[in-house]
Fold these 2 entries.
Entry 1:
Amino acid sequence: MTQPAILALEDGTVFEGVSVGAPGLSVGEVVFNTAITGYQEILTDPSYARQLVTLTYPHVGNTGITAQDDEAHQVWASGLIVRDVPRRPSNWRSQIALPQWLSDRGVVAISDIDTRKLTRLLRDTGAQNGALMAGEIDVEKALEAARKFPGLKGMDLAKEVCTRERYEWTEGQLDLDRNAFVSAESRFHVVAYDFGVKLNILRMLAERGCRVTVVPAQTSAADVFALKPDGVFLSNGPGDPEPCDYAIAAIKEFIASKIPTFGICLGHQLLGLASGAKTLKMKFGHHGANHPVQDLDSGRVMITSQNHGFAVDEATLPANVRVTHRSLFDGSNQGIALTDAPAFSFQGHPEASPGPHDVSPLFDRFVSMLEQAKA
Ligand SMILES: NC(=O)CC[C@H](N)C(=O)O
């Protein structure tokens, strides 16, 4: 039996649809993602914590859900908003249908709303806070919950979503012919900060010969140095980078020690902050899998996967930080490199999960840095 669901926005707009997940109330910042595939990777990406994600692609759930495609061991998005979910999925890898998977995990989701109208509204007004309600509906209560959500600015979520315990990672990428993840021989030891890390990042490091020790967000630089790594990786993650003072302090020490350091997304923003730059909240951010980004060194344009609502403010970069990449959508910063330390970072997602692989050579650049430092 279909259950009703609503999406209430802080500006008072209410969308009525049907529930395709668990009953209940869930609040967060509403963001739109324009990728046409990868709904499972998006929902399990820890960077979406406290966000309600709407997908502009209208048919979501067609290929079902496969455990191997999880980017983390749980759904991190606070809710899902879509136009249409198929009656049944169809794919040889599918293990479970999207609505069942969502409701098993207590995730509130709505379908049958006009997602184009919602996206236009968010594009015009900027990302808004909202509330999803499914099952028993109380419009006033949902509107109040949407207005009460404090917003992501100033919210430190990295320390909330990260691993509690340190762990080792050696598994490479999925070999579909063998239906197994392949392990590679390791030549380097990398300490990866988990601010909300996506598993495909760890796999891409492992595939390139890195044995990875994943550590909690609040691990001190001294504890990292004690592990004697060849390099440090700074992961993606949810929330505002600015309040993550523990991470900024640790990264300052990595820069000073000249250990090879590579950051992705939140990790990029944190490297920027540790270098002395500032970050800003964008109007509606970048969330999609077809964003053009220019590599300023080569002039090449790459199509990239993106998921961020904050950005490094280029106007605040100190003299020892070079801009390496820029978004061709809005000219915002997409990459930096220090001129006096082997440290660089990228705002988008070179792990492309989901998305195109144009930026994956950045992992090779990090590995060359590890090689050079070791030589
Ligand atoms: N994917 C990420 O790491 C996102 C970084 C940060 N939370 C932002 O929204 O900008």
Entry 2:
Amino acid sequence: MEFDSSPVFLNSEKITRYIDGRWDSLISCLETSFVLYSSDDGQVIQPVRENVTVRDYNGLLFSMPVCSSPHEALATKIITVYNDNHLRGLPRIQGVILLFSAVDGVLKAILEAPVITAKRTAGATAVATKYLASENPKILAILGAGVQARSHFEVLTHLYNFEEVRIWNIHQNNGEKLVKELNDKGFHCVCCSNVEEAVRDADIIVTATFSKTPILKAVWVKPGAHINVIGASNPTSQELDPELMRSAVVYTDSREAACVESGDIIISEVEVYAEIGEVILGKKEAFRDKTTVFKSLGMAVQDLVSAKLVYDAYTSDLQK
Ligand SMILES: NC(=O)C1=CN([C@@H]2O[C@H](COP(=O)(O)OP(=O)(O)OC[C@H]3O[C@@H](n4cnc5c(N)ncnc54)[C@H](OP(=O)(O)O)[C@@H]3O)[C@@H](O)[C@H]2O)C=CC1
Ligand SMILES: O=C([O-])C1=[NH+]CCC1
């Protein structure tokens, strides 16, 4: 029997070709992944990710396995997160996603992780924002000016027509660089010199930084705003002050992960009200008129559905 076992290797450039301009398909896949995960009927098996600390170099190694029966697929994302890599001129997040057939265990593809991680995280935020933000949001504030800030800008301006987009970054020159890059493409964004100025009256806020301590305070946030908390993905880091966490209705992607991984939840001692999948399933309410927090940690099933979207587009292109 002939058996060609070679998996395809999809680098960032190829992935970008098959994922760019496909926000609606990606958002729809991610919505499905939230539903499958929160259905709790064994269709998705996703343990809490493992991580190893690289103490000497301020690094982490994450391993994120998952099986999705409806997709007949298995995946594992393996990434490193090195906080000081900007000093080396390297990305802080690197790695690969391995995509297997669940039917026979064949490794189908190896995909570079950064582009998918950027897009699927922003796409997941888009799903949460669609359910939790007020109708017709006018002001968007993004805290951070890195990879996630860019992909969140892209997806949220795809979904909404904002009157104002404000960006704040710890190093203002990097914030200004991003604002210039976006304005050169025809957008109109402003760079703010402090967080309070950036979030004043904002309807939607994104925190996408590597801060370990809170950067966003309750007193600065308009009641009823929706906040997507993307950073602080470990039990000792926070992006939001505990008062803000306690005054908001808190949603997350995975309750099981949030209770062991999210400093914003653990240190603030808040209850998770619902997984976003439970809201989509109609099991829990979406409080659009209250201040809401979506604590995003990132799930392997999001990587699986996104990798599959790219792989399927690539293989159907080959058959043309
Ligand atoms: N929820 C999820 O699914 C995912 C979450 N993440 C998390 O999102 C966050 C952003 O990741 P990503 O955009 O890829 O990273 P980048 O390195 O591209 O950007 C990081 C941003 O954080 C800023 N920053 C660094 N240190 C601090 C600090 N002490 N206080 C405030 N801002 C700071 C950086 O500013 P400057 O460059 O000027 O130093 C930069 O704007 C990280 O916490 C990461 O772990 C990432 C992937 C998925
Ligand atoms: O889900 C993910 O890929 C990550 N979450 C935190 C860092 C990377």
